[in-house]
Amino acid sequence: MKISELGNLISRRTFSKSIAALAGVGFSPLLAKKSKSTRLLLGFDNFSIRGLGWKAHELIEYASKQKVDSLLFSDLDVYDSHDEGYLREIGEEVKKQKIILHAGTGGICPTSQSFKHKYGSAEEHLRLLIKVAKGVGSSVSRCYLGSSKDRKTPGGIRLHMNKTIEILKKVRSQAMDAGIMIAVENHAGDMHSRELIELIEKAGTEYVGATIDTGNSTWTLEDPVETFRNLAPYAVCSGIRDSMIWPSEKGAKVQWTAMGEGCVDMTTLFNEWSIKCPETPVQIETISGFSREFPYFEKDFWPPYSTFRPDEYSRFLALIRKGRELTPFSVPDGIERKIAQQEYQLAELERSFVYCRESLGMGRKKS
């Protein structure tokens, strides 16, 4: 679908819901009064609007229309080619639009259950990512280990952490020569923020940093504010969304939301962000509409999480007290499922932009 068709895609119904949701958004005068030059950089991860299936040029055009400061291409399929000439063209295009581009990919741990051989071995995959990042002018190569499933395998998450460190060390010279930081994400419940710090420090902080994902924090029973505080010294990239957490019969349920529609303390989080890593872009990655249960009342739940600390878990429990149950996304009657999902994803992302700009004072471009 072309950018010019966006106006027809977002229905009056979806737009009205977006505005209604914003009516309850809080306002932070302290943040909103910041000058454009001191505001946090605002952008998005292309995964937020994955349902549209856009490639690089379309995403850059959309990013330009939304007047964002940054853009994360979190997969290698977004490019029509990985040839140097094409990548240079993409780099020139984002530079012309005054957009910071971060390059990324998926899992690079060969022992993870989620690892795919689409780009060869883990080392070959990571080397390709660094090549792409250099080609488009990205200072970052975002990737991740795996998912929460890896915590439950023989040897636990530490086995996969060690293998990921091994792969990272194999590409150290290439990354250093290219001037690129490999930004490992806390992804889908794989590593707690403290475990990610351990991985980064063992691999080498001179070429490995962190991609902070505040939504994924809640999948390791963390308060995203604490995740940020832990990872801020290493943060070079981000994938950000809000979360709603509420009690369930077996423990708690987590549903990711648009920014400002969950129970995370966004004002505290981004006040601290502006102090501790002001040049690390806040890149929205909305993945909403479904909940996941964490049955921590069941005895079989805890062995994979044996390293978690009670003080950290208590802050997660405090979030539960602030939350309320949400209904999952469902396709409205009379609308094609694909179109409904596209509408939903665009509305979630664009509502997040409004919240971040109006309530948190983000974004350096005039919107």
Produce the secondary structure layout.
Layout: H1 6-9, H2 12-22, H3 29-32, E1 42-45, H4 56-65, E2 70-73, H5 84-96, E3 100-107, H6 122-136, E4 140-144, H7 156-170, H8 172-178, E5 181-185, H9 193-203, E6 208-213, H10 214-217, H11 224-231, E7 235-239, E8 242-247, E9 252-257, H12 266-276, E10 282-284, E11 291-294, H13 310-322, H14 337-358
Parallel strand pairs: 1-2, 1-10, 2-3, 3-4, 4-5, 5-6, 6-7
Antiparallel strand pairs: 8-9, 9-11
Can you tell me about this structure?
The protein has one domain (39-358): TIM Barrel (Alpha-Beta Barrel). It is α/β, with parallel strands linked by helices. 40% of the residues lie in helices and 15% in strands. The protein has an eight-stranded parallel beta sheet with strand order 7-6-5-4-3-2-1-10. A three-stranded antiparallel beta sheet has the order 8-9-11. It is globular and about 55 Å long. Strand 8 and strand 9 form a beta hairpin.
